[in-house]
Automatic annotation (TrEMBL):
Domain Low-salt glycan biosynthesis hexosyltransferase Agl6 C-terminal transmembrane region per the UniProt entry, residue ranges: 288-376
Pfam families: Glycos_transf_2, GT2_TM_C
Cross-referenced SUPFAM superfamilies: Nucleotide-diphospho-sugar transferases
Gene3D superfamilies found in the cross-reference section: Spore Coat Polysaccharide Biosynthesis Protein SpsA, Chain A (3.90.550.10)
Transmembrane stretches, start-end: 233-256, 268-289, 317-340, 346-372
InterPro entries: Agl6_TM_C, Glyco_trans_2-like, Glycosyltransferase_2, Nucleotide-diphossugar_trans
Annotated protein name in UniProt: Glycosyl transferase
Segments forming domain Glycosyltransferase 2-like: 14-174
Keyword terms, alphabetized: Membrane, Transferase, Transmembrane, Transmembrane helix
Molecular function per GO: transferase activity
Amino acid sequence: MDSRSEIRYRYAVSVILPALNEELTIGECIRKIQTVFHDNTIDGEIIVADSSTDRTAEIAQSLGAIVIRPEKPGYGNAYLAGFAHAKGRYIVIGDADNTYDFSDISKLIAPLEAGADFVIGSRFKGVIHKGAMAPLHRYIGNPVLTWMVNVIFGTRFSDTHSGFRAITRNALDQLNLRTGGMEFASEMLVMAAKEQLTIVEVPIDYYPRRTPSKLHSFADGWRHIRFVLLMKPLPFVAIPGLLFSLMGILLMGFFYSQGEVESSHLHTFILGAIFFMGGLQVILTGFLMKTYSIIHGYEKKAGIIEVIMNYHNLEKFILAGILLSLAGIIFGINIFIHWITINFGVLSQISTAIISLVLITTGIQVFLFAVFQSMMLLNENNGHA
């Protein structure tokens, strides 16, 4: 082993605790970890990534923990700062609010020593003590988010948002983690699944907090959903959008092919227009999400997105958008001419007017999509110049 590896793996285990005003519990967490180290003869270090304004840092330092101050606030940023300082072969992470029993560290390390890359402490396979998890989180939030991850990435996890985890340093370095907020929990697991790491779940107990929770249910939930969709936007964004668009085309085409739409079918015709325009917007948004994911290194360029990301093809999209809007304007001009021929009498071309509106709006959507997409690709194309 070279000198760099010796420095890197100075300890067998590094335990990282993100902390935000946890003076009531940080001491107990550290003492539990130290007991595990002592009883199992583990050469380990404890790193507290602290952003507190209370005595958390003072207490942690007095007990021998390494205290660091992350440059940026946020759950993910705390862990990223901790990872940068950690020198253990195995990395254990857990919240400093004493909701996880750090006496169970050995349960997480054992699968790593047996060859696993990543271990998750599953609260749903263990015991969730009374008052430890809000009903909204226990019966809706966590199960739904776990289901999303399992469906999208083909995994079989029971608890994708447990904060008590262990991972080998080598596996951690493969993940290239970067998110700074609560979505870090999703990113870590999703990237581990994408890298095909050997992932194991072990049952753990989950205990009530002594202090008010710092979670923001809907904001944090949205962060997780946003990240998961960013990783796989086409199946869950673009494809539903395509189905709605096709449904809209069929509805409008069926009625319009029979001549001017009668008033009895007009609402259905309008519904078709809404389906088409809404679906198209969802499709284009899915492509933008996919582009963002590729630019930031989460996905690889392939298939239809490779065609769309071609800078020269985007110029064709811009042209297509202009032509669609012009077609809509021509429909509108024809209606106006017809209005003149009937001496500005009562018009009965509502469906044609709707077609005109749909074409103009679709053209604007496609034009703006191509412009924004090309702006996102400026750096990439300049880099290849």
